[in-house]
Amino acid sequence: MISSRNNPLIVETALLKTKKFRKKNRAYLIEGTKLFYEAVDQNLPMTRIFATTEWLKKNQINFPADIIPVSKPVLEKLSSLKSQEGVIAELPYILKKPKPFNKAIILDNINDPGNLGTIIRTADCAGYNQVFLTKGCADIYNQKTLRASMGSIFRVDIEKIDLRGMRVLKDQGFELIATALNGKEIFMNEIEVPEKFVLIFGNESNGLSKDILELSSQRIKIPIYGKAESLNVAIASAVIMYAYIDQKKE
């Protein structure tokens, strides 16, 4: 058992809590029993597993990587959370072969990791298996993103995209549907759902960039009936994703 917080392996692994070190080593940490088993269910490769003896007694399975028993203070050193559940695993960056899709979402400059993870979870629930992120989005391997996604990050295909990539999607026959203040109100009007479409959501403060709006095929918005200025982007994206799914089913 490793009981020293200054153990070289522990010190080096703890650096994965920073984006810079994650990117350099193309590796990240997951914390907690639920995320651990979500990763196991998806057969994701793991480099090593750090766990307390108490957790190991309750979870006796065929582990997919070497088990390193650690003390609670050592687990605290590796953790980004206030309270730990007894297990932290190190994984290499997720690599997936792109799958065909006829609907997707693009997230532009969603820099709050909690919102990003929640939107990815909603996309998974609503059957949007392809998510594109622009450069300004939060890190998908941030602990807040991972935990907010509740494991959906392991199931949904996530790729980076820029304006050039969006033009490629448009050339491939995808309708680029952007959310904008001057958009057409959904619910007030019948939604025409294209065979192939991409919903685009922007930062709450600044909205979508001018270039993306100009590239879009159409613009939409959710009507506001009360006095609040707007909906949280995670809530708004959920409403719109499901609106387009429900309309297509009818």
Concise account of the structure shown:
The chain has helices at 8-14, 19-25, 33-41, 53-58, 72-78, 113-126, 143-149, 163-171, 210-215, 233-249, and strands at 27-31, 48-51, 66-69, 87-92, 103-108, 130-133, 157-160, 175-185, 197-202, 218-221. It is of the alpha/beta class and 250 residues long.
| H and E string | HHEHEHEHEEHEHEHEEHEH
The termini sit apart by 58 Å
In percent terms, what proportion of residues is strand? 15-25%
As residue ranges, the low-confidence spans are none
Tell me the domain tally: 2
Let me know the average pLDDT: 93
CATH class of the largest domain: Alpha Beta
Notes on the structure:
It is a single chain. With 250 residues, the protein is an alpha/beta fold. It folds into two domains: 8-92, 60s Ribosomal Protein L30, Chain: A (2-Layer Sandwich); 103-249, 3-Layer(aba) Sandwich (Alpha/beta knot). The protein has helices spanning 8-14, 19-25, 33-41, 53-58, 72-78, 113-126, 143-149, 163-171, 210-215, 233-249; strands spanning 27-31, 48-51, 66-69, 87-92, 103-108, 130-133, 157-160, 175-185, 197-202, 218-221. The strands form two sheets. A six-stranded parallel sheet has the order 7-6-5-9-8-10. Strands 1-4-2-3 form a four-stranded mixed sheet. β6 (130-133), α7 (143-149) and β7 form a beta-alpha-beta unit. α6 (113-126) runs parallel beside α7 (143-149) and α6 (113-126) packs parallel to α10. It is elongated. The N and C termini lie far apart (58 Å). The model has no long low-confidence stretch (mean pLDDT 93).
